[in-house]
């Protein structure tokens, strides 16, 4: 079933738009989701999204939808860029926390036009550390499950529009991710990213980059960023943002970077994966 939003933008939902009160995704966050960049009807990094959704469903213990059902919304995709959000819940049933057996998963989707923020590619972004600490749960580490309350609370820590993102550590002080993006840095000429075996989301852009560059997964605290030659945030919708300023949780500057070749080489790899323009390399 398809419909149109109030502003005329295309909007898609699977048949049965209403989510039942007893849907376990609504009640407990019992489900997974994917947010996919769609370019002229083609889902970018699609195999990575399918793999993560399948892994998430396996971890939670219900069958993933058929690929044909996941691809059905693409027939509604407009020309240009759009974002497809897929949500799969365990469905309804069970008693309290006891899951239904067998489960009857419920798929919903939404498809909306999208425009990235190219100034953040070229000019870089300001980010800050968050006070909130992520809980450790290795069973859920890496998957994109529907319970994202930690991210919601962390995002409430700032309202300044000049701050693009917040960096999160786990309860033991290890760097994990940003509220909605993965984290990368170059230190001593080596490209590093947080290890995600305790918590955090293994982004599809992060997974794709691992196949193109030597990306070392490390368990470290935030102090290592003081020694970084370059710092980036990235996901499969927005691309890769170089960081020019890192603040503490009170908004005071901790570190600054000037954009130059060290920032642009990884950005070029990421932008190519997503079909985005590659910022010109300039030595400032």
Automatic annotation (TrEMBL):
One of its GO terms (biological process) is folic acid biosynthetic process. GO terms for molecular function: 4-amino-4-deoxychorismate lyase activity; pyridoxal phosphate binding. Pathway: Cofactor biosynthesis; tetrahydrofolate biosynthesis; 4-aminobenzoate from chorismate: step 2/2. The keyword Cytoplasm does not apply. SUPFAM superfamilies: D-aminoacid aminotransferase-like PLP-dependent enzymes (SSF56752). GO terms for cellular component: cytosol. It catalyses: 4-amino-4-deoxychorismate = 4-aminobenzoate + pyruvate + H(+). Its cofactor is pyridoxal 5'-phosphate. Its EC number is 4.1.3.38. Coiled coil: none annotated. Pfam families: Aminotran_4. Keywords: Folate biosynthesis, Lyase, Pyridoxal phosphate. It comes from the Bacteria. The keyword Lyase applies. Signal peptide: none annotated. Homodimer. Belongs to the class-IV pyridoxal-phosphate-dependent aminotransferase family. This is Aminodeoxychorismate lyase. It comes from Halomonas cerina. The lineage of its organism: Bacteria, Pseudomonadati, Pseudomonadota, Gammaproteobacteria, Oceanospirillales.
């Amino acid at each position: 079933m398809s419909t149109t939003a109030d502003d005329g933008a295309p909007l898609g939902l699977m048949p049965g738009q209403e989510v039942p009160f007893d849907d376990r995704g609504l009640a407990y966050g019992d489900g997974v989701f994917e947010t996919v960049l769609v370019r002229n009807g083609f889902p970018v990094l699609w195999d990575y999204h399918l793999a993560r959704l399948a892994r998430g469903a396996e971890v939670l213990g219900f069958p993933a939808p058929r690929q044909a059902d996941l691809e059905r919304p693409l027939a509604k995709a407009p020309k240009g860029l759009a974002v497809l959000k897929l949500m799969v819940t365990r469905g309804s049933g069970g008693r309290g926390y006891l899951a239904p057996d067998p489960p009857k998963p419920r798929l919903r989707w939404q498809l909306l036009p999208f425009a990235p923020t190219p100034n953040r590619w070229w000019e870089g972004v300001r980010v800050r550390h968050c006070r909130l600490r992520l809980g450790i749960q290795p069973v859920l580490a890496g998957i994109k499950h529907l319970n994202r309350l930690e991210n919601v609370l962390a995002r409430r820590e700032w309202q300044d529009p000049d701050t693009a993102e917040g960096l999160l550590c786990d309860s033991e002080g290890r760097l994990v991710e940003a509220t909605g993006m993965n984290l990368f840095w170059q230190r001593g000429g080596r490209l590093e990213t947080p290890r995600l075996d305790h918590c955090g989301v293994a982004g599809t852009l992060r997974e794709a980059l691992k196949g193109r560059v030597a990306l070392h997964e490390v368990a470290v605290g935030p102090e290592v960023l003081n020694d970084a030659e370059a710092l980036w945030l990235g996901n499969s919708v927005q691309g890769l943002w170089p960081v020019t300023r890192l603040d503490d949780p009170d908004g005071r500057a901790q570190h600054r970077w000037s954009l130059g070749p060290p920032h642009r080489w990884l950005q070029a790899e990421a932008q190519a994966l997503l079909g985005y323009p590659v910022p010109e390399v300039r030595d400032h």
